Amino acid sequence: MEFTFTPIGFVRGGGRYPQEAPRQACYADNRGVIELEPHRNFETAAAELAGFDRIWVLFVFDRNSHWTPRVRPPLGGMQRKIGVFATRSPYRPNPIGLSAIELTGVRGRKLFIRNFDLLDGTPVLDVKPYIPVADSFPEAATGWRGEVQEPSIQLHFTENARRASSWILSHGGPDLAETARVQLSTREMDTRRQRLQQRAENAWVLAFRTWRIDFEWISPDEILVTAIRSGYEEAELHPDAPDPYHDKELHRAYRRLP
User: By C-alpha distance, which of 98, 58, 29, 74 is closest to 192?
Assistant: First the structure.
């Protein structure tokens, strides 16, 4: 038996790449919009939704290409793999996700959201209201999750790193401050799933796309992002060099900054 679904809309906002997705919506710090498709009377379907603080969003993991029966969750120093049905992993037999997201407003076909763990362009399959009396069970057992601790890392930025991130974002590049927050403060560091390199005892580099984020551990639960820099070598930025990611002009401009 097979089923075919058509998206009712798409997420606008958030990161573009899987590494930018918050591990859960409760760890997100962002704003965006779910734009429902036109000519399907969806503005009528969403008319009474504005009175809810949260919505359930069913969506497609459209940037995943495979599934696996066991995964290693990115928290608690997990040394063993867990059956995928006992996790929120995106590597599922049917690439369908479910997330409880804050709803801040409804205007026609636009659902305004914040603190979500979806990527820009994510296809949305359905929207349902979050009803606390039916959907919240705080005393429910949590299986293996009760064996591990949630990461709790405070992230700080030097003024230069904060300024660099803002400049790159304002000129069309990725949000590297948010990437650092997602990758370093809400999950266990793991060289098996993150592009990490240790440079000194407490100094590390996180690679994201063609950028590099330098950071230091200043205490067991605090990280300081010290610099953001281009991941290209000087020769790679020659005007005649190939530009497969179409971003070298941004890197050239960044390197010209005083």
Answer: 74
